[in-house]
Amino acid sequence: MVSPWLRRFAPFIAKEGLVLDLACGAGRHSHYLAQLGYSVLAVDQDIVAAKTLGSPLIECEQMDLEGDVWPLEGRQFNVIVVSNYLYRPYLDHLPNMLAQGGILIYETFAQGNAEFGKPSNPNFLLKAGELLALAARHDLKVIAYEDIYVDQPKPAMIQHLCAVKGHFQGRIPLQFHG
User: Fold this and answer.
1) Farthest-apart Cα atoms in the chain, separation
2) Which one in 4, 143, 157, 177 has a CA-CA gap of 20 to 30 Å to 151?
3) What class has domain 4-165?
4) What residue segments make up the domains of the chain, in order of their start?
């Protein structure tokens, strides 16, 4: 299932440039973005499943995202998508890899998730406001942020962030939850 957070913001991403799907897993978000016409670099330690997507718009690269050396050093992207992944030693590299006007769409589990199951290890759970602090450290403009309980696809505590480096050229949809 494609993340509702990504569905919300993907249509407002400029078509030119490259999207990074970091820790892509089986490639569900890469596939979705390619269907919308985006060029995607899907990276993960295991890309066997992602390679079966068969889209000419998706390039898959196997990378050790938690090794001693950051494998994406010097690369730049128009959009970075991260879902259900957190490795703090390289977290601050992400905003630096965004092109001017680039968008970071990030979501993963947050403190309090242990109540609902895995992940429960604090190393894999965002602290309160951690994504907001990341945006602030790198002068990203926060378009939308949530630190919430979700019940789909399973009960969990999640943080969502959509932030832009510099000025966003498109239009972001307003949604009110009540």
Assistant:
1) 45
2) 143
3) alpha beta
4) 4-165
